[in-house]
Automatic annotation (TrEMBL):
Organism: Campylobacter porcelli
Record carries keyword ATP-binding: yes
Entry protein name: ATP-grasp domain-containing protein
Keyword tags: ATP-binding, Ligase, Nucleotide-binding
Limits of the ATP-grasp domain: 1-178
Pfam families the record matches: ATP-grasp_4 (PF13535)
InterPro entries hit by this protein: ATP-dep_AA_Ligase, ATP-grasp, ATP_grasp_subdomain_1
Length: 270
C-alpha cells in the first residue's frame, strides 16, 4: 500500500534545520482541534521569529510542507471496515497565514476520494465508527489527508448534514448502537452552504426575517453583540453563529451567502 502522506514533516524544535523544508510550510499543534494555532509560514525569517515565541515551546507542534489545493471536509461512517460516504463539503478558507473554514458548500461524491479514504481506513484498521476527516485535492487531482477523527463533525455541522442529506449521522449511529432501525445512507443531496460570520469590528446583524425567503435561509443563529476579533481559529468564530442557505446550484449558494453578509451593517461610533 502506498504512503498516504508523502510530505516532509517534523516535530517543531529549537535546533530544527530550516534547510530541510521548502516554503511555504504549515505549523500546527500535534494535539487539539479547531485549527488552533495553525499557521502558514511563507519565509525562513518568519519561521525564525516563530521559533523565538515561548508559546511554541510549551507543547508539541508539527511542521510540515504546505499542500496547495482545494480543501474538503468528509462526513462518513465505517461499517465492518468499509467506507460509507455521507457528505463531502468544500471549504471556504481564510487567507493565509491562518487556515480557518468560514463556510462549507455541499458537494457531490468524488469516487477517487472514497477510494482513497478506504485505503486510509484499511491502513488504520478502523472497523466501526462515524468519521470526520479533512482532505485536500491537489492541483493535479490527487487527494491528500490532513486529519481524521472517529467522531461526528462539530461546528454546527450536524444540522447542516441533516438539512443537506436528510439524515443525522449521530442519531442514526445511536440507533445502530441500540440495535434499533437505522440508515446512514443519504436520502438526497441538496445544494446548500453553511456560512459563518467572519468579519471583525462592530456590526449590526442582518434582518434575517426579511431576507429568509429571498435568500433561501433554512436555519440560522446570530450572536453578534460585541466587538468581533480577527478569525484565527475555531474558537474565534464558532460563537458568532451561522446561516444555512439552500439554492438551486453551488454558484447560487455562494451568491446568496455573500448577499446575506453584505446586509450586515457596520456600527458607526458616535
Amino acid at each position: 500500500m502506498r504512503n498516504l502522506r508523502e510530505i516532509n514533516f517534523s516535530l517543531f524544535k529549537p535546533d530544527l534545520d530550516l534547510n530541510e523544508f521548502k516554503f511555504p510550510i504549515i505549523i500546527k499543534p500535534r494535539f487539539g482541534s479547531g485549527s488552533r494555532d495553525t499557521l502558514v509560514i511563507s519565509t525562513k525569517n518568519q519561521l525564525k521569529n516563530i521559533l523565538k515565541n515561548e508559546k511554541f515551546k510549551q507543547e508539541d507542534f508539527l511542521i510540515e510542507e504546505f499542500i496547495d489545493g482545494v480543501e474538503y471536509g468528509i462526513d462518513a461512517a465505517v461499517m465492518d471496515g468499509k467506507f460509507n460516504h455521507i457528505l463531502l463539503r468544500e471549504k471556504l478558507i481564510t487567507p493565509i497565514p491562518y487556515r480557518q473554514a468560514i463556510a462549507y458548500i455541499s458537494t457531490d461524491k468524488i469516487p477517487s476520494v472514497s477510494e482513497y479514504m478506504q485505503e486510509i481506513i484499511d491502513k488504520l484498521n478502523i472497523d466501526s465508527a462515524l468519521i470526520h476527516a479533512d482532505i485536500i485535492i491537489t492541483k493535479d487531482g490527487k487527494p491528500f489527508i490532513i486529519e481524521l477523527a472517529t467522531r461526528p463533525s462539530g461546528h454546527y455541522l450536524s444540522k447542516f448534514i441533516e438539512i443537506t442529506t436528510g439524515i443525522n449521522p449521530t442519531k442514526e449511529w445511536i440507533n445502530h448502537s441500540l440495535n434499533l432501525p437505522y440508515s446512514l445512507k443519504p436520502k438526497f443531496r441538496k445544494n446548500t452552504i453553511i456560512r459563518y460570520f467572519d468579519f471583525e469590528g462592530d456590526w449590526i446583524e442582518a434582518d434575517f426575517a426579511l431576507l429568509k425567503d429571498s435568500l433561501g435561509i433554512i436555519e440560522y443563529e446570530c450572536n453578534i453583540s460585541s466587538t468581533l476579533t480577527k478569525v484565527v481559529d475555531g474558537a474565534s468564530i464558532m460563537s458568532r453563529g451561522y446561516a444555512i442557505i439552500e439554492a438551486n446550484s453551488k454558484e447560487q449558494c455562494l451568491i446568496n451567502a455573500q448577499e446575506l453578509i453584505s446586509n450586515f451593517k457596520r456600527k458607526i461610533n458616535e
